[in-house]
Design brief:
Pfam families: HTH_1, LysR_substrate. By secondary structure, the chain is of the alpha/beta class. The chain contains eight helices and twelve strands. The strands form three sheets. Strands 3, 4, 5, 6, 7, 10, 11 and 12 form an eight-stranded mixed sheet that branches. It starts with a helix and ends with a helix.
Length: 279
């Protein structure tokens, strides 16, 4: 049994959702699910009842929760006991919603490992922050911006969609197609320009805020949607195709105030992330 599995179990218990726990822990959902499953095998019990709205703890899960919290608290105390005292470096990092959890978690780990004494707090974009992980379209004039990776947009469609036999979909083939729209969306202006330029008409069935909801509606057969390719990973209930004659992408980067001094270790963490995501 590993402490990490207990941390993931506590996150799922408190969030009542594997997907919410993955966002909280900045870890891909399959990793959360696999760790909890392994914990259930180690303990020879079922900790959660899975259902369409999330999870419900079983009696065994209810019994494990306070004990897991106690163990994790004692582990943290032991770590602090033997950790050398270093000057504290407080930093508030804002992260735009719905970025890939594995990439955000890598950046966070690099910052913690490389910046001595870092006291890191993750906040929402609407909160005060010292640095931000954002799309370049959200960059302010007074911010420095270091590109981390590029998200290319793809067409997500139901598995039985009439265009599913094509490997690449020309944009014109979507004329009259049922569509799931998203707002806000980084490429909204470019997408609508490309559609209008060709005189196409899409039938908007729904407008949602998140990529996850858009993909759920696609899987339900309500239409197609344009989403970042990263968000379609681990989705086996949809098909993904390239749009052959239009390129849509967003640039994700690390932004901070140009006037504020930056620790060399922080720039090193950014460089490590760039190398990791360049492939």
């Amino acid at each position: 049994m590993y402490f990490r599995s207990l941390r993931y179990f506590v996150a799922v218990y408190e969030e009542l959702s594997f997907s919410a726990a993955s966002k909280r822990c900045f870890v891909a959902q399959p990793s959360i699910s696999a760790s909890v499953h392994q914990l259930e095998e180690d303990l020879d019990c079922t900790l959660f009842i899975r259902h369409s709205k999330g999870v419900t703890p079983t009696p065994d899960g209810e019994a494990l929760y306070p004990r897991a919290c106690k163990v994790l608290s004692e582990v943290d105390e032991i770590r602090h006991l033997f950790r050398e005292t270093t000057p504290s470096f407080p930093m508030r990092l804002a992260i735009m919603p719905f970025l890939p959890g594995d990439r955000v978690s890598f950046i966070v780990k690099e910052l913690i490992n490389l910046v001595d004494g870092l006291d890191l707090t993750l906040v929402d974009l609407n909160e005060p922050s010292d640095a931000r992980i954002i799309s370049i379209t959200q960059r302010q004039p007074d911010e420095a911006f270091h590109k981390l990776w590029v998200d290319h947009y793809v067409l997500a469609m139901p598995r039985n969609h009439q265009l599913s036999t094509l490997d690449d979909i020309p944009l014109e083939a979507l004329d009259g197609t049922a569509f799931i729209s998203r707002k806000p969306c980084d490429i909204d202006e470019a997408w609508h320009f490309a559609v209008a330029e060709r005189g196409l008409q899409l039938i908007t069935r729904a407008t949602v805020k998140t990529e996850e909801y858009a993909l759920d509606l696609v899987a339900a057969g309500l239409g197609v949607s344009i989403v970042p390719s990263q968000s379609t990973r681990h989705r086996e209930d949809i098909l993904v195709r390239n749009v052959s004659n239009v390129e849509l992408k967003r640039i994700i980067g690390f932004a901070y105030d140009k006037q504020r001094p930056v620790a060399p270790e922080l720039l090193q963490a950014i460089t490590q992330a760039q190398l990791r995501f360049s492939g």
